[in-house]
Amino acid sequence: MGVGGSFWDLLKPYARQEGPGYLRGRRVAVDLSFWIVSHSTAIRARSPHARRPHIRNTFFRTLSLFAKMGAFPVFVVDGEPSPLKSQARAARFFRGSGVDPPASSSAEAEGDASAPAPVKARNAIFTRCVKDCVELLKNLGMPVLWAKGEAEALCAQLNNEGEVDACITSDSDAFLFGAKTVIKVMRSNCKEPFECYNIADIESGIGLKRKQMVAMALLIGSDHDLHGVPGFGVETALRFVRLFDEDQILDKLHEIGKGIYPFLEGFDKAHVDDLPSPSTKSPPVARSPHCSHCGHPGSKKNHSKTGCNYCLVDSLEFCMEKPAGFICECPSCEKACDLKAQRRHENWQIKVCKRLAAETNFPNEEIIKLYLCDDNLDKESGDRKLEWTDPKVDDLVDLLTYMQNWEPSYVRQHMLPMLSTIYMRKMASSPCKSLLLCDQYEFHSIQRIKIKHGHPYYLVKWKRTTGGIVSGGASHKKPELDGESHAEVVVLDDDEEEEEEEEATVNIESADSLDEPDLPQVLRDDDQVFLLTDEDIQLVNAAFPNEARQFQEAQRLKEAKSRSRKSKLSQAESMLETPKGPRPSGVQLSIKEFYRSKKAAGDEAGKKPVIEGETSTSRAGSRKSPPVDLTKRMPKSLRRRLLFD
Asked: Where is this region: Disordered (predicted)?
């Protein structure tokens, strides 16, 4: 939730639409609770009997974020919630279930211990899901940090200190904790861009900074105070917060909470109850008399004698009658209108300040300290090192086989894009010819450029160097491409080779296409086994510069040949075309004129050409031969073009 009301709707006009390439090479802090809750809910809505959707989603989303998008994710886990948030959770539960909350004030002080039994059971189930995901992420080699309280608070702190480049969370109070870049909604296998919010765009758009957002949370409510101040919505809170700068907004709220009115000049700490009435602050401005007939300055009597300067007439008889809803724009009327608007604004300020002063414990100092705290890491749970290690494939296979009932070949095949990404990053940092992908595959070539989800990739071909699968009679067959639509077995372990060869396809549970990444393809040619994977272009160029340069040169030669072939073809077609006559400009020919002109052009083209030296008399004396239609020897398509083009 974050800040109450429609706070995200207020920020949405300033969101940037970014594609999958935005996160490549960047560190991102992920709110793990947000992933578990949102994506597990979506999976259960599609398939209610899904087996541990939190494990499945965390596995596939992490692979896509790391391998396909090229990001370096850091996962942050919630710690113990603050007493204020525990109270808010209990209040939200009672409000959603329609049960009246307990009236004892001691229950509020006890915090989570006073939570009802359904809330405790739900929290216990969620905690078990978080532990399962943490075990999975550690086997994947991802860094996991534990927050003291809110996970989005630690994500924002890492972003504010420059440890990560963005935060992935749906809680809008990440900006209140100090985040600079927040990604709200992101789908790994979706062509549509995701929403990315930058604090710089928000500051330049609506003029809100961190402390001003904290003030808005105090007014309209948040995760720590569901109700806020009665009568305050997003628009009212924004209007009030804009009256003060960021450096003085919280001090002014403390003054208003003590009953001090901060807007009067010349008064020393005036109390809101002792404020003078707005009507007695300044004497009313005397408005000059206006004509009741035309509404312009001047009396009706004077207009009847001297006329109206605004109507430009000499007597009242010709003075124009004012229309319905007429508003005079003379200087005296504008001054009176401005004074009226000023008094209305002052009345609104007094009304708002009296409403805030009537609130008990406003502003809540504990909420302010929570949002402005810069130490959100739970040091007892671990250090702050952000290290990405190699995944433990064998442990992952055992874990997912037990929890998800997946086949080992299915797990290994989906791990391959992540392993290839790690392998190429190692080759880019320290090239080593003896280093192999999964200790079995070496880089072979770049097949082509592939566009997937609007982003270009290299289709890379990997060759297996040890223990190639020999298929009987395969030496006289064309290369066979498998694994496009089935979970084809990819041999990554020699001990399981015989068992996995017998099961060419694996029966797995239905998967969500938005989460599950594309499977690598298996290519068998004679006794050799190749893999085809989609890899990032920049990463391949850095890992294998010579091979990438050769592929790019071959692509340039291919494009040059294609251009030359097209130019020759267009020249040959232009030589066969007849010269076109001038077209009428501005007037379209009728259908009769069009066919008449084309018929005449066709008759002239079909006449027999006159040979030099042959006179008309010699031709007349000789035997008359029938005219030969040269166009009949042409293809039908070319004749049609000559006739109608």
From this structure: 492-520, 553-645
